[in-house]
Amino acid sequence: MLLKLSEKALWVRKATLNIHRIAKETRIASSLSVVEILVVLYYGKLLSFDPKDTKWEKRDRFIISKGHGSISLYPILSDLGFFGSEQLDRVCMKGALLGGIPDPLIPGYETINGSLGHGLGVGCGVSLGLKLKSSREFVFVLLGDGELFEGAVWEAVMFAGQHKLSNLILILDNNKVCMLDYCKNIIDLESIAEKFRVFKWQVIEVDGHDIGQVSEGIKSLRESKIDKPKLLLANTIKGKGVPSLETDPLSHIRILSSDEVDTAIAGLS
Amino acid sequence: MTEKPIVLRDALIEQICIEMGVNDKIVFLSADFGSPRLDKLREDFPERFINVGIAEQNLINIAAGFSLEGFIVYAYAIAPFITMRAYEQIRNNLSLLSHTRDLNVNLIGVGAGLSYDVSGPTHHCLEDLIVMRTLPNIKLFSPSDWITTKKIFEYSLVNNSPKYLRLDGKGLKNIYESPETISIEDGFKEILTGIDICLVSTGYMTHTALDAAKSIGGVGVIDMFGIKPFNERLLLETLSKYSAVITLEEGFINKGGLDSLILNLIEGKRDKISYFTNRGIKDEYVFDIGNRQYLHEINNIDVEGVKNTIIKLRTCSDNLI
Q1: Looking at residue B317, what is its pLDDT?
Q2: Nearest CA of chain A to the CA of B308: how many Å?
Q3: What pLDDT digit, counting tens, does each position of B43-94 carry?
Q4: Phi/psi of residue B78, each to 5°?
Q5: Are strands B139-141 and B226-228 parallel, antiparallel or unpaired?
């Protein structure tokens, strides 16, 4: 299983780089830090979904908050049948389904994103709504650590703790890099785990690129009997897999040339 | 027609509370904003009343989340805070998202215009209709009495778009006699038929318009309770009976509010409607301290000010009576 997921992650990383080759507007570094997280969720049987019925009542709700960093979800959704693979060759082209930042017209996306700091609050509303309906589905929210600079995120963090939103699993892509610098040079938020615990969250910290750890972490949070909202603090590397991006504090705005994409893919192989 | 002023938020909350008793899909969210009538609602429905705290941004996001799960949401806060503190949340998670999703979120903003008179400019709400008008997919209502508000509430239960309901902070007397005479689809009502001049007003200013028009004679009054959408064809047809139109609003003028809405509408009919002018708050915040009547007087939108505007217009024009 883990080997299979590792192979999927390699494939997703390559496919994401190939999307960036044709759509330079996409944020490649931000999309590479979440690959293992997305692979575990979608291929690791930890997220309920039905590609043929995206409004299926029994689906887990997956809310992407870091929109432009989720281009790596495109190949996954296509592979699983949410839309045809031909769409991957047309990202950002005239009339395409898939743009530089995903929108809710794309099958599989629950909400709008792009502007940061919105997903957790909406996720809290969905979570409480599901609880009120006595529904057993989970709400997953994918947030970037840079989004923690938005005040509205903390409004939601406090709300979730107060209301014991135990069906809410926040996955924090803690890649430690914003657009212009390392997060800690802008506002140092360490320790993130302690901050969430103070606000009455259950926290599990993992290596966000270790498929086993991510998988076990999510599984453990899903099965947890602790009556609190859950945080999977996934320590990741922005631009993971591409050495020139991994060490660059400006990786968020880096655009790779076709040659660089070739080199990056060759390096992955 | 009752003479007793009705505080719209109290009457509305009472109505919502009654409906919550028979409809378990309704949730009521507050940004730590109260009302005497809210106590019963909180007591009767502790699971479906949620105080999100002084956190308007989260209020909107939570509301969007609930509505995605099929709930009918009433989100309640002071008008300038719910519209402007949380504007991007409204834009993204209600206006944009409702392009593809049903989102029955009803924003109840209390404190229209200068109704929180002595609380000063942070609590005055002079921009809300302007900024909210720019957002696609959101319906805007600005009722002038309880009869209209109740009709809008009934509509809110069955219409799945986001809506903004701009309520006065003070009690208002009923203008309409029965809800049957009100059409939500039309969005307006000619409540007084005139001859030459028509006052187009919304909310509290409809009361001022009626008082001014009745004391002068020959002046019509149109109450715009539905700022968006409204029946453009019918409104244009109604306005075309008049040769002069004056808009009255408790909000900034020349910035995209009621005046702009009407001016854009009559653009092609200026051969018939030869005079247009607007009254409201000019490009300056109101720091003066005093009650609403005083603030209206100094801004020339009290009954006397409106009457003078009408008289002056008639004096200056040969075409008017």
Answers
A1: 78
A2: 48
A3: 999 999 999 999 999 999 999 999 999 999 999 999 999 999 999 999 999 9
A4: -70, 140
A5: antiparallel
Radius of gyration of chain B (CA): 19
* C-alpha span between B207 and B224 (Å, rounded): 12
Q: How many Å apart are CA B136 and CA A86, to the nearest integer?
A: 32
For the residues of A207-261, what is the DSSP string, one character each?
Answer: ETT-HHHHHHHHHHHHH---SS-EEEEEE--TTTT-HHHHT-TTGGG----HHHH
The 10 Å CB-count burial string (b at 16+, else e) for B12-34 is: bbbbbbebbeeeebbbbbbbebe
Tell me the residues of A at the B interface, defined by beta carbons under 8 Å apart.
61, 104-105, 110-112, 114-115, 118, 120-130, 132-133, 151-152, 155-156, 158-159, 163
Give the gap in angstroms from C-alpha B54 to the nearest C-alpha of chain A.
Answer: 9
DSSP state for residue A60 in the 8-state scheme: P
Which contiguous run of DSSP H or E holds residue A143?
Answer: strand A139-144
Paired strand residues for B190: B222
Which residue's structure tokens are 């404190």? B111
Least confident among A168-177, B10-19, B97-106, B265-274 = B265-274
B213 close to B205: Cβ distance less than 8 angstroms: no
| Nearest CA among B232, B239, B263 for reference residue B249 | B263
Q: Which of B65, B71, B99 sits opposite A122 (nearest CB)?
A: B65
User: Could B69 and A105 be called an inter-chain contact, meaning their C-beta atoms sit closer than 8 Å?
Assistant: no
Write the Ramachandran bin of B105: left for phi over 0, alpha for psi from -120 to 50, otherwise beta: beta
Is the CB of B244 inside 8 Å of chain A's CB atoms?
A: no
Over the range B56-85, which residues count as b (16 or more CB within 10 Å of their CB) and which as e? bbbbbbbbbbbbbbebbbbbbbbbbbbbbb
In chain B, what are the domains?
6-172 (3.40.50.970), 183-316 (3.40.50.920)
What pLDDT does B319 receive? Answer: 65
Give residue A253's identity as a one-letter amino acid code. I
Domains recognised in chain A with CATH numbers: 2-268 (3.40.50.970)
Scanning the structure block, which residue is given the tokens 């921009």?
A: B127
Q: What is the CA radius of gyration of chain A?
A: 17
Longest pairwise C-alpha distance within chain B:
64
State ipTM: 0.96
